[in-house]
Amino acid sequence: MHFISGLPRSGSTLLAGILRQNPRYHAGMTSPVGSIYTAMESAMSRRNETAVFITEEQRRAVLRGLFSNFYGDLHQTKLIFDTNRLWCTKLPALVQLFPEARFICCVRDIAWIMDSVERLIRRNAFELSGMFGFEAVGTVYTRVNRLAASDGLVGFALDALREAYYSEQASRLILVEYSALTQAPADTMRLLYEMLGEAPFEHDFETVEYDAEDFDTALGTRGLHTVRRRVEWVDRETVLPPGLFARFENDAFWRLPDANSRGVSIIRLAG
After folding, report:
1. Beta pairing class for 2-6 and 79-83
2. How far, in Å, are 51, 63, 100, 117, 176 from residue 58 at the CA level?
3. How many CA atoms lie within 13 A of 207 on its CB side?
4. pTM of the entire structure?
5. 255-268 burial, b for 16+ CB within 10 Å, e for fewer?
6. Closest CA relative to residue 6, chosen from 102, 117, 146
7. Which Gene3D superfamilies does the entry mention (predicted)?
8. pLDDT (tens digit, 0 to 9) for every residue of the chain, 271 residues total?
9. Whole-angstrom Cα distance, residue 188 to residue 176?
10. Cα–Cα distance between 206 and 78 in angstroms, integer?
11. 3-state secondary structure 187-215
């Protein structure tokens, strides 16, 4: 069992699309397991008056059993990569439930994450997005502020990544920069396989396939989980106003020279 987490719009769906080419692996977009996991934690907490009868061993067994029961036979025959940005907040428990697990965290410049979300909103100009509660009013500034809030799509994920990055379990992390995955996919995957202790596999970066059209349409954000068949880097101008784009230019904390005190593995472009 391994986990994919990190920041939104940073390549996690693309990475899953690449990994699933390997017949030994199962990977996909954000799964329901994270929300079920937190619901079970709540049900076994002290807010439930009968929780006094639940031992720590039983809590561990119930939570671990969630994964094996959810994935069923796949859990017996394939290496599972479960995706959820929530996992960065659950390292103390997950490393006990799965002692061999690694946490692959996809990362990207925050300003370009905001740009990517805004592009999706504008591309779906006749739809209201569930990412913003299907609200019909707002500006690019209110949308970005909502995303950046501590409980927002980006703000929560960024705080969760920081928590994991500076935690006692940080050595379990593998950060994969979006620029490395899209500009040097073969080298990135080779390094990732080495870090996971897995046998090499020849991926086809010209025909990567993954989409979740029904999910994205229901969210009012078509294209949210669609990846290009060819893995490539696309240069472009930002759609954000200059001041708004510049607001996030120093938020890539993992690039700070003295930040990596826990020895986190980071896959980035050379140079």
Report:
1. parallel
2. 11, 9, 21, 41, 35
3. 3
4. 0.93
5. eeeeebeeebbbbb
6. 102
7. P-loop containing nucleotide triphosphate hydrolases
8. 999 999 999 999 999 999 999 999 999 989 999 999 999 999 999 888 888 889 999 999 999 999 999 999 888 889 999 999 999 999 999 999 999 999 999 999 999 999 999 999 998 889 888 888 888 888 999 999 999 999 999 999 999 999 999 999 999 999 999 999 999 999 999 999 999 999 999 999 999 987 777 776 777 877 777 787 889 988 999 999 999 999 998 899 999 888 899 999 999 998 6
9. 8
10. 24
11. HHHHHHHHHHCCCCCCCCCCCCCCCCHHH
Q: Letter for the amino acid at 250?
A: N
What residue type is assigned to position 72 of the chain? G
- 3-state DSSP helix/strand/coil % of the chain, to nearest 5: 50, 10, 40
Question: Which ranges of the chain does DSSP label H, i.e. alpha helix?
Answer: 12-19, 33-43, 56-71, 73-77, 91-97, 110-123, 140-148, 153-165, 178-183, 185-196, 213-218, 242-246
Element housing 5 (H / E): strand 2-6
Q: Which residue has the tokens 């209110």?
A: 142
